[in-house]
Please model this.
Amino acid sequence: MRILFFSHYFKPEINAPASRTYENARRWISQGHEVTVVTCAPNCPDGVVYQGYSNKLWNQEVQDGIRVVRVWTFIAANEGTIKRTLNYLSYMVSASIASLFLKKPDILIATSPQFFCGWAGVIASWIKRTPFVLEIRDVWPEGITAAGGLQKAGLAVQYIEKLAMAMYRAADHIVTVGEGYKEKLVAKGVPAEKISIITNGVDPELFSPRPVSSDLRERYGLGGRFVVSYIGTIGMACALDIVLRAARKLKEEEDARIVFLLVGDGATRKQLEATARQKGLDNVVFTGRLEKALMPDCLAVSDVCLVHLRRTPLYETVFPSKMFEAAAMAVPIILGVKGFAAKLISDSGAGLCIEPEDENELVNAIYTLLESPDLRKQLGRSGRDRILRDFNRDALADEYIEVLNRVFRLPTATF
Model:
């Protein structure tokens, strides 16, 4: 098939949408499909275009056989509602216009969580008269209100709700990340038969156990301390002030054995780092944004990996991709996410679950794992076995292409 894929984020950006789109696309290319990705100049999360790239009307490159078309957008950091909205809207306009100059695809995909990327897919599918698959990685408008971006009862949220429903109706098929998202969509009136579940997953070749990088330990002053890492976007949804509260508790107890390593960047990183300095929390280390290639090494220096989101009902439906990567590396997980993710971690024996935003439970879980090396090994082995069996990106890409084949052969579906 000739596949046209709209994604606001793409490699070399390293967030979940960028990685997921790239990993699927390169596998489809290896199977003989033709994939074009329409994206923008890489700039996430700080709103600065990466070295070697420029924010022009049209740039084109080839990555591992994937044709990558980069369009102009209003560049903005991953913070501030107005500027981010302009960023998202400009991508919708530019990507829709770009579709005019591209060959008609057999099928078109647009991925969230960027809401207006989905609408770019709707518009382009109308222009090209081609089947449209909408990836839902965040249910709207709940995704905004859960992260603290807008008030639940506001007029803007009501308008976005109407736009979201129109977008769901316009899609020929919807692919979402888990059963919880499917349930929410069905509750909104989307027919269950119009939805397929393709979960997040992990590349078993990239993320596999390896020796600890002494260079990374030295670079960030970790020494021989017990490393509790958080690796990923540092944004409002993650509520990582829990780390600062836990770090302060450890300082008050004069326990210098433990260090928190926060790898990544995002809307709240600067504020968290400033607060940590102000409170003298030298047991919290911020690395800033690092290359994707360094993520396995960052996990390898970790004794435990923290996966955490705000305490809100919406996040009870998610499967954060970072927990798959940690489990594949046989690193035990402390999970501060309720619902489906907690059930997976408990059932697989990949880690310990805590109440989100509860620093006391976090500290207790850290002490449990610090004082029991055998438990850490057991959790690491169990998690790796389960993740490689059920969440291998190779198998998931195959499932996805089967869905696309079915949609390509079906008449347009509506509700």
Summary: The chain has two domains: 2-201+392-409, 214-390.
